[in-house]
Write a structure and sequence with these properties.
Low-confidence stretches: 474-483, 594-599
Distance between the termini: 57 Å
Helix content: 40-55%
Largest sheet: 10 strands, mixed
Structural class: alpha+beta
CATH architecture of the largest domain: 2-Layer Sandwich
Strand content: 15-25%
CATH superfamily of the largest domain: Bira Bifunctional Protein, Domain 2
């Protein structure tokens, strides 16, 4: 089965089980202060997992686009990718463990034909610290499924200590079998949902572990080790808990959150752990082979380069389509980094001409039936890639000049001291990398050609220090919890609706929201506008928002079709990211259609998932603290409530 066929089969299967299939949310999350990207299938679903009613009901399924920037440096092996699709099904207080185990087994074994002899299962061992019990219920449900297939399925308590022990189902601690966006229970902030999970692993065969080059060939093997024999293909999260100040409380309505890696399932279907051998990469692989004259799989270094380029250009295509054009900040920084890293590795394949556009077109062709936005925005995507590729080629030229300056400095120093320089320091290499964008590998290669070495460990220290600084800055920037529902965050969320309408009144109806970021300390709102907002316009916007706050509008919500929302004058990005039904929040009289009309008693009607305050008079005084450019044609406002 192809990736397209697996995705379609999954969505159809759960549609037949009463699920409403919704489109993928954007890779750029809305109203989530925890991250720059949608990195998991559950991320857009958090409000509903916390109790908000979903406009499409209590059974939902989708294939969610995901991007994990933290995996950029891991790409190059046979299983890491930065972009991936996560097949998901959710029960929002409806069915629970029994149905989920039955259905996901049925899908994997009977619908797409995976051999149960190669399936292994892990379950939660329990937590004494937080008084959360061992998940024996899930283990027994899985055991029953194996037995129904004519297989014995031993349950093993401590595989990480004693290995496989001829087991089929294994218990692990919360580091392995607990799911929340913050990881283990100890790291979860107040209000965050989570629960024990039960993961499915595919066995690619013992030869993967015992390959003569494997560093794991002599180590104890179990399904959650790193030897390469097993690959996780799906995770059933039994979301039954919510973190409180010191302990956990059970959710009033228990939820199911399943996530299955589409590309990993496709790898299991073809029986090969190399993700890059699945069909979705075939077009890009052929294009790269034609450009380079190299063959994928024949040479380790060149195969590594193939993988990096294919992954990074695919991710960049989707990021640009969702609005993250290459830039020096926020999401655009990572798009830029992906493209530049791809260009860097093209040198390992001997590619000297521009190549990003041709690789991108192969992915647009492969995905356009499912993600029509790619074909619709093809010229924009190609233009952004070509521009960034060209700029980086110039950066490489500048880096080469700086490298030569560095060598010239060495020569002058040698003439003065009589001591020959044999090594480029880690700090010098990092300056080339950080200031001039010059890849470390190129510094190393050029140094070797000139009989010099490079202090790799020193570079690593400098890079790690830089990462720590960046991480601290990011945590400060986004601190405030994980899409928390604290009082201030809810207030700021409501204030963005007031700000949106006020901007449309002052600047014009061309203004559309292009993203927001909310913490308990401030709001950030991105919108379409080509010119700087003047001080007079900012004052007018502030006055409109504060007048709405003082008036004390009530805030209410109702579920309706998209067409009905349009008819009622609701604002929002009417795109494929919405399902057939949406939730519309009204600030003011919900029976008045022309939201935003100064003569009406309705200030705002907007599509949104919530949550919001009940009355605007609780918000406080609104003040704009900063207005700036975010990217081409996009302005950004930061504001506080005082």
């Amino acid at each position: 089965m192809t990736v397209q066929e697996i995705r379609q089969a999954y969505l159809q299967y759960f549609k037949d089980k009463g699920h409403h299939v919704i489109p993928s949310a954007s890779l750029l999350p809305e109203n989530d202060p925890t991250t720059l990207f949608t990195g998991s299938g559950m991320q857009p679903m958090v409000p509903y997992l916390l109790g908000e009613s979903h406009p499409e009901g209590v059974r939902i399924a989708d294939s969610q686009k995901c991007f994990r920037s933290g995996d950029i440096d891991e790409v190059g092996d046979n299983r890491h990718t930065t972009f991936f699709e996560m097949l998901g099904n959710w029960s929002l207080g409806d069915y629970f463990k029994t149905e989920q185990v039955d259905w996901i087994w049925d899908f994997l074994v009977n619908i797409i034909g995976l051999n149960p002899n190669q399936l292994y299962i892990t379950c939660f061992r329990g937590s004494d610290e937080f008084d959360i019990p061992k998940d024996t219920e899930a283990a027994l449900l899985w055991q029953k499924k194996f037995e129904q297939s004519g297989m014995s399925a031993e349950i093993v308590d401590f595989p990480e200590k004693d290995g496989m022990q001829n087991g089929r189902i294994f218990y692990y601690d919360s580091e392995k079998n607990w799911w929340s966006r913050a990881g283990v229970p100890q790291n979860m902030p107040n209000g965050e949902p989570g629960g024990p999970d039960s993961e499915m692993f595919w066995d690619f065969g013992v030869e993967q572990k015992h390959h003569e080059k494997s560093v794991w060939k002599d180590d104890l093997c179990h399904v959650n080790c790193d030897c390469g024999r097993f690959m996780e293909i799906g995770n059933n999260v039994f979301m039954a808990y919510r973190k409180m100040t010191k302990d956990f409380t059970e959710l009033e309505k228990k939820n199911i959150d399943f996530g299955g890696g589409l590309e990993r399932i496709a790898a299991a279907v073809i029986g090969n752990p190399d993700i890059f051998l699945i069909d979705i990469f075939s077009g890009a692989k052929k294009t790269l082979a034609d450009l380079s004259g190299k063959v994928y799989g024949e040479n380790e270094k060149e195969t590594f380069a193939f993988r990096v380029i294919m992954d990074h250009i695919r991710a960049a295509v989707f990021l640009i389509a969702d609005g993250a054009v290459p830039s020096n900040k926020d999401q655009g920084y990572f798009t830029r980094r992906l493209i530049r890293r791809a260009v860097r590795f093209s040198k390992d394949l001997g590619i000297t001409q521009s190549f990003c556009a041709s690789i991108a077109r192969s992915f647009i062709t492969s995905y356009s039936k499912t993600y029509t936005v790619l074909a619709e925005n093809e010229s924009h995507i190609i233009s952004a890639l070509q521009k960034e590729e060209g700029q980086f080629q110039q950066t490489l030229e500048s880096g080469l000049k700086e490298f030569e300056k560095l060598l010239a400095g060495f020569k002058k120093g040698e003439e003065k001291t009589g001591r020959k320089v044999t090594e480029i320091s880690g700090k010098q290499a990092f300056t080339l990398y950080d200031t001039f964008g010059f890849p470390f590998e190129m510094t190393e290669e050029l140094a070797k050609e000139r009989g010099l070495s490079v202090d790799r460990s020193g570079f690593g220290v400098a890079l790690e220090k830089h990462k720590q600084t960046s991480r601290s800055a990011a945590e400060e920037k986004f601190k405030g919890g994980l899409a928390d529902t604290s009082e201030m965050s809810v207030k700021y969320h409501t204030a963005t609706h007031l700000l949106h309408v006020a901007l449309r009144r002052v600047l014009g109806t061309h203004v559309e929201q292009k993203g927001s970021n909310i913490t308990p300390k401030r709001l950030r709102f991105d919108f379409t506008h080509t010119e700087k907002v003047t001080d007079e316009q900012k004052k007018e916007v502030e006055d409109l928002v504060n007048a709405a706050i003082v008036k004390g509008y009530t805030v209410s919500s109702v579920e309706m079709s998209i067409e009905e929302a349009k008819t009622q004058g609701a604002i929002g990005l009417f795109s494929d990211s919405y399902g057939e039904r949406v939730k519309v929040y009204t600030i003011g009289d919900p029976n008045f259609s022309a939201a935003g009309d100064p003569a009406s008693d309705t200030f705002s009607k907007e599509i949104c998932g919530g949550p919001h305050v009940e009355n605007t008079n609780t918000l406080g005084h609104f003040r704009i603290t900063k207005e700036e450019s975010s990217s081409a044609g996009i302005r950004r406002i930061k504001a506080v409530l005082e």
